[in-house]
Amino acid sequence: MATSTRARVGTYALLTMTVAAVFNFRNVINNSVSIGLASAPSFFFATLLYFLPYTLIIAEFVVLNKDSESGDYRWIKTSLGGRWAFLGAFSYWFVNLFYFASLLPIILVYASYAFWGQERVFSQTAITIISIAVFAVATWVSTKGATWIGKVTNVGATLMMAMSFAFVILTGGALLGGLEPATPITVGAMAPDTSTFATTWAFLGTLAWIIQGVGGAESVGVYINDLRGGVKAFIRTIIFAGLMIGLLYAVASLLMTVFVPAGELTYSDGIFQTMGGLGAHLGLGSGLVNRVVGLVMLAATLGSLLMWTATPVKIFFSEIPGGIFGKRLVELNENGVPWRAAWLQFLIVVPILIIPALGSDSIDGLLQIVINMTAATALIPPLFIYLAYFFFRKNYDAVPRDFRVGSRSFGMGMAAFMMVVFSFVFVTGTLPYGQEAWLTLVYNIGGVVIFIGGAYIVYARYIRRLRARDPQGAAAELTATAAALVEADDQD
């Protein structure tokens, strides 16, 4: 479908879509519960060492692939060819399947606060049924494209940013006015607890959560063809969003213990505890605060749900060869969305929503299980992108482009450094200390190995068949697209 026939979104819509994909106060809570004030400097350094370089790399890949519908798939194929592009896009889609298991149940928490002013207790059966129903609606909306998604994220992300800035400003004002924080904010409090192996390993595992918390900027790359202003507008917006989100994460984490003592926050209710403390300081009733916060978080989380329902499907299914799964599955509708693949994703997620609930007696327990599971696997797709970027700068840096990150050596060094860091963090995130062995084996390790291994087998089968009937086509599929760009430039 030609780009000109698609409705366009503006830069503010792209900003809110980025915020919806990347920023959520829930990430601040999760990491504060786990490692306390140490999450503040962790978020700050994660922004400098991960999110900012990552957004710059994405911007460079977008410049190289201006007409891409799939983002990650085309970016990886630029330097590594079709095989690695397929595996990278599949891993992105696969790991995000597990994200729904943490995102959908928390919607019930926010909805109960928005409507009743307090958390309502749901049975595991009710949690699962409602989550499936919400995901079905989200899947339908996601097939309508960037315009529909942008309308929802405009509301949710705007409310989220307004609430977050209000929290930072009002809490900072309270401290300047002489308020004594419930837990003192000191340099010592911001240092991670490394007194035992268990606490050290837990902190290292939490780094996976934090990197996941500032990740997701690649998700908006699939909407480059829907953006007014094109590549230049995309680069400006995503870099601004990256800096704003990273700083907001760090400052908000620093203020988490002003009203609530360290150690008393919980995963599911932490934001209501924190905002309730601020509301009490301002003389506001808890019922009013809970409903307002619940409404904001519900709107923001629904926007995030739409982004993560649509983006992985577009990344994986939009531009892979039709001979792998069949042309009907990857066919795009008038909005540039592979709608049949979106509904296939829905059918796959349903059992993922059911199985984790069998080992948990509450929403809070369910969240702890799936947070560990999601954070570790979420590091796989960035590793593919850094690998692709390293070899692009190494082998194809001569490709002409309008934007690049530093010199060839700088780009290679940055990518190599991040691959080493993420490999270490991935190990600690995959093996969380104290988690039940069967969960670690089945979800954190077994699922990733089996499904990515299965993807490799599927692609190898496709290449064997293609090579048998079209050897040149198979060679072209496995060749990096940047090679053709270098040859074209040499001929000029």
TrEMBL record:
Molecular functions per Gene Ontology: transmembrane transporter activity
Keyword annotations: Cell membrane, Membrane, Transmembrane, Transmembrane helix, Transport
Listed GO CC annotations: plasma membrane
Pfam families assigned to the protein according to its UniProt record, in alphabetical order: AA_permease_2 (PF13520)
Keyword Membrane assigned: yes
Localization terms from the record: Cell membrane
Name the record gives this protein: Amino acid permease
Originating species: Actinomyces respiraculi
Organism lineage string: Bacteria, Bacillati, Actinomycetota, Actinomycetes, Actinomycetales
